[in-house]
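Q: What structure does this chain adopt?
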Amino acid sequence: MRYLYRDFETQAHIDAQYNPSLLLPANAQPMQHFCELAAKTRASLQCVLDVPFGPTREETLDIFPADAPNAPVFIFIHGGYWRALSSKDFSGIANGLKPLGITTVLINYALCPFVTLDEITRQARAATAWVVRNIANYGGDASRIAIGGHSAGGHLAAMCLQTQWARDYGLPQDPLCGGLLFSGLYDLDPLRYSYLQPLIQLDAGTIRRNSPAFMVRPSSTPLWVTWGEKESPEFARQSLIYHEAWQITGNKSQLQAQAQANHFSVIHGLEDSGSAVCQWLARTLSVA
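A:
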């Protein structure tokens, strides 16, 4: 029998694992929650929107400063399978972080198929470097920055963690003091056989350059690699192989699913300062 990827025989089998909407009730509208909360958050919290970090219109940051100066910082990268959504859809995560005295920075980036996945990775890295160099101008402490992301954003955060920061950007080799990765994609190979391929246009070279599970470098940055308990087995596998690769390289990480969470609700904890993920960030960022 011929398999497309591992033990998956057809595109339908792969789509069943990698299309998270298929596991939701027919009337579910998970993005409605995020969009409504995001609009309320921008109206109620101090924020500086659409700060450019690069030359194109999409290369912007949304910054939600903490009240106190020299605040720790959390950089968040949104999901959408590299071809949908924006930073504006997830402003609501600042609600969980600001009460802890953490500044929130949300990265926006250009989308496939208008740009390639290599270019999106470059933009995520450029945005992170911008934050390290400039966040002090917004009351942030550049020595206490963590990064995180959800789904495709988890992939991009992992790619940032792989970066040779000293060689390529002239920064400290490990400028990030924590990583919080939600339901990330770390082995891109199965996606080229999925419903996503016409838009994300993966080839062998793109997959090799952008599959962080297979190119982990030594790093002093501790991670929490997590996913939703109600997600497909493939999302669990993706997190497991990345966690194992991070540890085999001698790095520190913990692996734990979010109880009762699906692919969308897995990041709801970022909206609640008392949640396990927000408390982990507070400890990792040495919040007083």
